[in-house]
Automatic annotation (TrEMBL):
UniProt name for this protein: NAD-dependent protein deacylase
Enzyme Commission number(s): 2.3.1.286
Pfam families according to UniProt: SIR2
Keyword field contains Transferase: yes
Keywords, comma-separated and alphabetical: Cytoplasm, Metal-binding, NAD, Transferase, Zinc
Binding site for Zn(2+): 112, 115, 131, 134
Role: NAD-dependent lysine deacetylase and desuccinylase that specifically removes acetyl and succinyl groups on target proteins. Modulates the activities of several proteins which are inactive in their acylated form.
Amino acid sequence: MGKIVVLSGAGLSAESGLGTFRDAGGIWSRYDLNDVATPEGFARDPSQVHAFYNARRANLAGARPNAAHAALARLQAARGATLVTQNVDTLLEQAGANDVLHMHGRLDRAKCAACGHDWDAPLAMQAEDPCPACAARATRPDIVWFGEMPKELDIIEARIAAADLFVAIGTSGTVYPAAGFVDMARACGVATLELNLEASGSVFDRGIYGPASEIVPAWVA
Ligand code: BJW
């Protein structure tokens, strides 16, 4: 298979009990993303945004990696695969993966909106918590919201361009720039594979469909 880059989305963690965003009953059917996942929403009502992420953090504390996370950790150890995730959970790390590229940030990290310093997040945060570096009271989750620049893009794009296989797992392919990675891979002559509950509609060379906890271990084996 050569060099592999795996991009994961919320479907990877669905069977661990963390909700997806756009499936029926998903997170965006219960919350307005403009309120909880934009810098403007945070400026309007920081306590509403913190309540949303504090609840997500508490949910994550009770979640465990599933067989798909474990299979990807094995793939990384055995084949040196690059693991890129849009997920803000840490279930890949809990399954034993290292160097996961969290392009949309991490729930377990806090960031100062004044100076940019980041640190380990407590289970419950509020904007008034002082920054350990500059003491400003502008604490926010270290999450990439709509309109903000995703993290690690240079390294992700370089790894995709140099890959032999690009695999997208459990993502609807609606949020850019991640949604464009498959087109970038195809333009670079990289083979592409989708593993998802059902076809996302993006163009891949090949697809395998079913629950991640079944199809990912079967593909990795
Ligand atoms: C299963 C399963 C099971 C279920 N087994 N599978 C054009 C170009 C560039 C940007 C834009 C553009 N047009 C608009 C934009 C801006 C915007 C954007 O993309 N908007 C779209 C809605 C159109 N993008 C941005 O603002 C991004 N920043 C940006 O673009 O900066 C400028 C820039 C420009 C050009 C180049 C580079 C940069 C930032 C996006 C930030 C996204 N943030 C969120 C929320 C924060 C994190 C959090 O709170 O958790 O991230 S939104 C939300 O969606 C979250 C996710 O990471 C992201 C993707 O969702 P995902 O993972 O795909 O989940 P779902 O629910 O959509 O899909 C689940 C899938 O799983 C489904 O397919 C199911 O079938 C499947 N599934 N159960 C296997 N058991």
